[in-house]
Amino acid sequence: MKIVIVGGGTGGTILANNLARRLSGELKNGKARLILLSASERHMYQPGLLYVAVGKMMPDELYRDQRSLLEPSIEFHVDPVEQFALDKNQVKTKSGATIDYDMLVIATGSRMVPETIPGLAENSETFYTEESAVKMCKALQQFQGGKVVITVGVPHKCPMAPLEITFMLNDYFKDRGIRDKVQIHYTYPIGRTHSLENVAKWATPEFGRLGITYETLFNMKEVDGKNKILRSEEGTDTPYDLLIAIPAHKGMEVLEKNGLGANGFIPTNRTRLNMEGRTNVFVLGDTTNIPISKAGSTAHFEAEALGENIAAMVKLGAPVRDYDGKVFCFIQAGKDRATYAMFNYTTPPDPKAPTKAIHWFKLAYNKLYWSSVRGLL
User: Does the predicted model carry a pTM greater than 0.90?
Assistant: First the structure.
């Protein structure tokens, strides 16, 4: 049984380690092979980019060597897949290798696409790549006052990111002694301040308490960089001095090129995580089209469920459990307070008042992540 995992991010790494342990006997006696194909020899802790943007983490803290995070029985190659020949049970990689599989898992993640909004890429700051987070950090350091507008595209990676950066900017400007010179204005595309109703009910009074203004039903149309105006599809104009963007995301380009799903998101069964119409192709994390949070914890819980199922399919010939939609997201509510949202397909989140204790737990998780992707947590 040859299992090929495409993508070495959170989901792909946790799944590979999970399967390496569950199938240790089969891997040892040659009844199973486990191959992980990645685009990079380095693994990034993506939630850390938010902290880089406000000068609380350094870029080199975000990375570990990918091989060091993997069980020795996993065959690891830095050789990204360029072609998916699903009818032949094959993938073709950048190096030209053709790799057969019995089971394929696609966990290639997502990418921001600010270029889909005219003027956004050229006139805004964001934090979804190392380069953009460092650039944003420098822009914030140079900012002396004025109107900061946070604007949100959908879908986007990490559902709490718009709120987190808003609250963190509030404290950032307070620490610099210029909060009274800064107007923070938050926009969101639907009729409340967050897609999750209970999160919006918690966040909106927080905005009021902190003097943060907001506008809902605001979908970005274009950015007029010359006049520093953000325009919405709804017909409103919002002037800004500094524009912070949470750009819309798509799946990886290779999936679009191979016709595997609209905007690079693969149609996925929400409980078994198989690609619709395929019994031996599975999808993890940001790559799915399941309408739940694109977050590291989503990939983590999906990987645990899928690891159990793939191992059972190897040993028993059938899967044994469903993924229930479980997600757990910390919400950084400023520099020293945090709360969290935990939910699944049937139970909505119910965030509590932020505390320093949860903030410290969040900071601890920034370090514990490396044990988490190794499958030890």
Answer: yes
